[in-house]
Amino acid sequence: MATSRQAEASSRWRAPIMALVLVALFVLEGTTSNALFTGSWNTSLAILNMGLISAIMALGLNMQWGYAGLFNSGVVGFLAIGGLAPVLISVAPVEGAWGAGGPRVILAIIVGLGTLALSAMTWKRAGRKLRVPAILTVLIIGFVAYRWLFDPAVDAIEANQSAQFGNLGGLGLPVLISWPVGALFAAAAAWGVGKVALGLRSDYLAIATLGIGEIIVAVLKNEEWLARGVKNVTSIPRPVPYEINLQQDPDFQSLANSWSMSVAEASGIWVKLCYAGLFAVVLLLLILLAELALKSPWGRMMRSIRDNEVAAEAMGKDVTGRHLQIFVIGCAVMGLAGAMMITQDGLMAPTQYNPLRYTFVIWVMVIVGGSGNNWGAALGGILIWFLWIKAESWGPQLIGLLTSPLPAGDIKSHLLASSPHMRFIAMGLILLLVLRFSPRGLVPEK
Amino acid sequence: MEPINALIVFLNFVFIPAAAYGAQLALGALGITLIYGILRFSNFAHGDTMALGTAITILATWGLQSLGITLGPLPTALLALPIGIAGCALAVLATDRSVYRFYRRKKSDPIILVMASVGVMFITNGLTRLLIGVDEIRFDDGARFIINVRDFREWTGLSEGLALRSTQLITVVMAVIVVWALFWFLNRTKSGKAMRAYSDNEDLALLSGIDPERVVRMTWIIAAALMTIAGVLYGLDKAFRPFNYFQILLPIFASAIVGGLGSPIGAIAGGFIVAFSEVAITYPWKKVVEYLGFDTGSSLLQLMSTEYKFAVSFVILIIVLLFRPTGLFRGKSV
Fold first, then answer.
1. How far is B247 from chain A (nearest CA, A)?
2. What is the ipTM of this complex?
3. Which of A78, A144, A256, B261 could form a disulfide with A334, with the two C-beta atoms 3.0–4.6 Å apart?
């Protein structure tokens, strides 16, 4: 990994110009109605909100890849863990579920984690000959005990009001509390993963984290007592007002009239503006903290480790320890973004966590924006998200244009029907073009 | 009779499916290992390129079927396979020309090549969906079963039946032939030796006058053949859906890594290790154990539910890497 990524001269105006381009795109989307843009502020703000969350995801990945050179391809898993927090924190508790099996599940999880810790300890302490049998004994006894505790508890929870809920439910706390909790969940998972996987080299780490992401998503999909699996958790509380309440509020109705908009449209825009404000505050705060960290001695040490691991180690820096630290911090940011996304959607659907969308597109955001540069990663996140959404309508139009000379028939209708897949091709092309012609991204590291 | 019944259940639900799946994984992992050995990067686009090769083969199969050409009891896809391989080879050669060659010449960091392969993965994925859609496609015509459960029961008088699908037998036979041909090529022919020399020591190989671009081209063509064959066998055995081929990337990588990246024998061993552990750990052993005369009560004796198949391959990967950082057969690392 000892590659030179030292900065070459690049214009300091790149970030402001890119920000202006983005502003122009969102304003066009909000005001102009033609083949390219919808001309609806509701759509524009909806794209912006998810763009801000994407920017936070990209920021988290940029900390790992841009500062430290860690190839994490399990982003989707840490997003999903963060997304669990709004469910467990803010959803109303399911009557009787905790009584049915809650303590027993917690005990089972403690036994499971304890078994892993005990086997790690056995490995360190036991003599050479006794190692393998000792570890096997610990693992087998631990596994049997875990299953003996876990299985009946899960059955009991799922049997409780199974038609309506069948899961644990949450604590019923305000949803904003779940954002930092999401970050904590992801950080805890990242610590465990990092302890095991961070010893691996670049390619091996990439594949190991790919697997970890898949496993976390598989757990959420299948452990119905926790997140209801494919049955989804709906009606997660909101930190902002509901459209329907706004529409019934006379003050808001007169406000909408003064904007000369229909009440329905104005309420949608108002809610999205509230979200945008919340998300923007979080994003700016994170960028500020990240920039301060990067400019501190800590940040310089991080980059020196990235640029030359061997030299940094020779100077007495704890490379493995720093890697673990930055891995945990980056994943915590991803978990935060995951919790924010679930809060905005009001819905936890474990099946939505598709690695193509939530790992690899985030990679595209970081690479295109500029790895190593926080502003670049955040702007890249918003830009790529905008293109990802718009590709859905631009792709079919492009195909329609290209196939217009073709005679009507099977081939033409097949091409038109499958044109939504153009967005994957567009993402791939953007990634390859940027990697080739501007490998340090649109807003490179200073 | 009871132990024989236990054996039949074991063969039917564990051994035969795992052997077929292992053969598919081994062929996929051989491709990964070849590309890692020669081009020195992990190809994330592998699964989607398998899907592309399979999609071309399916289109060719439909073409042949509409002309009335079939292979009788064998699936027509076998006849269409060379067309699929040729199409896939052209696609990967074009990719190498337009994407990877630039970074190879620049001697870029391997991780940049991995990233480029992510871009290729997106494009291949989109092209495959554009070409054939996202729906599940079954294209296994011909005879479905070599042995079916009812006939087997009638012949033997046992209470358990054995099923052997034709696709399972074809998979194993094809895999044996392909592996034999690959090893013959690598060990006996001049080009194969050049490839091995280049993989072992690039500078030495260049000194002795081996043309690196030729070696790279050959690697891609062989990898395309392996990918298409593995993809078609997997599609015949299960069913074709583009997204499944993205998901199979993980067990394929796990197989290649467990064996040791860059080691062909390791890839084959890894494929079977991963397949057998996946099936054995997610299979409910209740019936087998009961035939052997043990009372299991209400428990299914299933270590993990089937949904965690991918978790098994990953856990094996981590365990192996913890103790042998370059795999069982001591592969390379860049």
1. 9
2. 0.90
3. A78
